[in-house]
Specification:
With 76 residues, this protein is an all-alpha fold.
Length: 76
């Protein structure tokens, strides 16, 4: 699972926030929300041994109507 390896989209967004200090306080609340979701996700993995459904079933919004983008590599 990419989350456990810190190679998922959540950790990547946190890395961007850390590298763009001009985002300032606006990004701090978003980063806290990401940290909260990661904590919740790690607890779910420990309990069920799989990603949360909202993570596992996530689809790229730009995929278009009726077209699914394969995000399975996010879970490697």
């Amino acid at each position: 699972m990419a989350v456990l390896n810190e190679m998922d989209r959540f950790h990547l967004v946190e890395d961007v926030i850390d590298r763009l200090p001009q985002l300032g306080a606006k990004a701090a609340y978003f980063k806290q929300a990401i940290d909260d979701k990661l904590f919740e996700h790690k607890q779910y993995i420990a309990r069920y041994g799989d990603d949360m459904p909202e993570i596992r079933d996530w689809q790229w919004a730009g995929a278009g109507k009726g077209r699914k983008v394969d995000t399975s590599a996010d879970n490697v």
